[in-house]
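Protocol step 4 of 6: record predicted structures for both targets in the notebook before any analysis. Target 1:
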Amino acid sequence: MTTSDARVDFGYRSLRMRGRLLSGRIGVRLLVTSATFSLLAVATAFWAMFFGDYPLTAADVVDAMRGTADEFTAQVVLEWRLPVVVAAVVFGAMLGIGGAIFQSLTRNPLGSPDVIGFDAGAYTAVVIVMLVLGVQQYWTIAAASIAGGLLTALAVYLLAHRRGVQGFRLIVVGIAVASILVSINTYLITRADIDDAMRVGVWGAGTLSRVSWTTLTPSLAITVGIAVLCVVLSSGLRTLELGDDAAATQGTRVGASRLALLTTGVATTALVTAAAGPIGFIALAAPQLARRVARTQGVSLLASAAVGAALLSAAHLLAQAISSVFRPLPVGLVTICVGGVYLILLLIRESRAQSGAPR
């Protein structure tokens, strides 16, 4: 990687990468933003390990990681809390990437998987598997979550298709489908046994507390595969932002690229839903926040992942802090409360933009 001596003025400082497998140009501000939010996510995750029924200090956590702490402290840090904070960082990054993909494809800041309804589809599949079929195995739940998200995406895509897919129509159809799925979920939960209903209800609130190395390890393996796909598909995402005709003239296979990106975006959301339940608004807020801080023209996958990781880590830290003085609080409730305010502000901003009023 070398500092750019480009003769072409791109309007921003950039670094140029040249390699056998990967080459390209990346803005310095984008790189700094991504690195800053990544470090913030790690620092916040480290801080979150201090809270719990067995309070710890920074020295306790460091000693446990170095292998010099007592046996119980090491178990608390390495077996109980470390997988949870790792999940907060990784799942936040996945939600940020998923939001960036869909907001780029729909060219609309409201085009987030949780708004369109893919979260609800994954959740519906898991509710059916757990309550109707009585299956509790992780891999079955994960497969059902991904299948539910993909089927919902396919249904929304087909219902919104009218000589192509427009972003606004996709969002409206997605919101309608999500409302139907929420009704189905509510009906199934009210008809279930009370213990099963409570278990599914807590999981449906979005919680990281049940994450362990057993369930996190396969999620990390899938995450690596998704990250590789994102690198491969990122060039197609950039050209699709210009419009289908412009993308086609640049050699992009529009239909195939859009389908691959839709599948990848749904997989990010379904992966998180399978392991922790639906966690709302991270996918909605992270890409927009990243775009504003990095000052990029479009949505960046790298910056969105970093901001998503920082947001979910911060939400987990807040949930842990509240739990230490009040009662256990799912992280999904924190993101919904904070994200709801953000969604209202975003709707007001979009409404003013549509009417031509100053934002």
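Target 2:
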Amino acid sequence: MRLNKTLLALAISTLMLSACSDTDEKDTSLTDGSLNETSGINDASTSGLNKGSGMNGSELNGSGMNGMSGNGDYASTLGPEFNDPNNPLSKRTVYFMLDSSEVMPDFIPVIAAHAQYLIANPGQKITLEGNGDERGSREYNIALGEQRAKSVSSMMKIKGVSDNQLNIVSYGEEKPVAFGSDESAWEQNRRVEIVYQPK
């Protein structure tokens, strides 16, 4: 019986000391301001985002994510010819003049190379993403981006690419690669991107 009372007294003492210890720690940290609901959150959430460590436009737009570009293009995973700067398959952007959907002569070999690849690989599909610069109405730029994509699509079909290998989408002015309101930015945004899809 005495042993039980002694054990009970020890257990109660241990619980009280433990409770006091927890209370002391919280009280101390609360009074010195080191523990509050936002201190841990602020440290973790803002350090990476505000400093922008490693996140810039080239990484968002370029390759580097498992061999894919930021727009979901799987071309760099298809073969070394897609990464060889001397091979026209490495070029997957067709640029246009202002208010035009006519393919410029410089880009005909690029379109022909992609068409030839698609003919040789009938299971491969691509999306032609038409874009425009910021000038003009939203509706106009959507229509112009679509027309640009259709121009590239038509050239590929003439070469022999199947309809079911080609998808067309227009982003209008909604997906610029260059931000700015000058000719340098605008000429980079007037484009069709040839985006390879997973098989």
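Step 5 preliminary note on target 2. Helices lie at 2-32, 39-51, 57-61, 108-120, 138-159, 183-189. DSSP finds six helices and four strands in the chain.
Proceed to step 6 after PI sign-off.
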